[in-house]
Amino acid sequence: MKIAIKNLEGKHSGELEVKFALVENGKGTQAVHDTVVAYNAAQRSGTACTKTAGEVQGSNKKPWKQKGTGRARAGSVRSPLWAGGGVVFGPKPRDFTKKLSKKTRALSLRKALSERLKAGDVVVVDDLKLSSPKTKDFVGVISALELKGTTLIVAAADKNLTLASRNLEAVSLTTGDSLNTYDVLRPDKLLFTKSAFETVEARLKQE
Question: What pLDDT band is residue 162 in, cutting at 50, 70 and 90?
Fold first, then answer.
């Protein structure tokens, strides 16, 4: 499969041959699901915490005698039945991360990228070096490349690019080394520099 390469004016400047094998049919669908679930789970802080009856403040003294008061039996003010008492089976700090094999992660990324390539959602440019950090200039580049909706830019770290894009809510940045399956699936369009796309290809060829 070949992809057209554009310059920053949106004009055709060559072609790029995709060097990794595209995933066909239904293969890799489960890997994509598992990877996205694992990614979302890893974003959870896992810091929710409630106190049990043994941890809440209060005395161990029996509130009143067992019999003769006409009230229900009570052994502690820290009972889960009382206001201010402990919580039964409440959340405690925990780690939500899920383990995935390297092959599963690689297959899911290749599957996700294959689907975006086949859908025509991937745009490749020669380079994305900006002469200034002005957002107005960067918006002109986005318009020239006809990128509508949310866009993920995959390029080498660049100070001007970071400063020019940070005020645009629909634009986010990452690098070829950091690209993951969730990043590929989330935006409407993917904008790669040629070098960043080759970095991703090198990662997928090691599968």
Answer: very high
Are residues 18 and 124 in contact, defined by beta-carbon separation less than 8 angstroms?
no
Q: What whole-number distance in Å separates Cα of residue 131 and Cα of residue 45?
A: 39
Helix locations, 166-205, DSSP H: 181-185, 194-205
DSSP class of residue 154?
A: E
Under 8 Å between Cβ of 93 and 50:
no
How far is the C-alpha of 185 from the C-alpha of 33, rounded, in Å?
11
In this structure, the number of other CB atoms found within 10 A of the CB of residue 156 comes to: 15
Residue 120, both tokens: 């025509």
Domain ranges within the chain, ordered by starting residue: 2-44+100-205, 45-95
For residue 2, give the 3-state DSSP assignment.
strand
Query: What pLDDT digit, counting tens, does each position of 94-125 carry?
Result: 999 999 999 999 999 999 999 999 999 999 99
| CATH superfamily, domain at 2-44+100-205 | Ribosomal protein L4/L1 (3.40.1370.10)
Q: What type of residue sits at position 115?
A: E
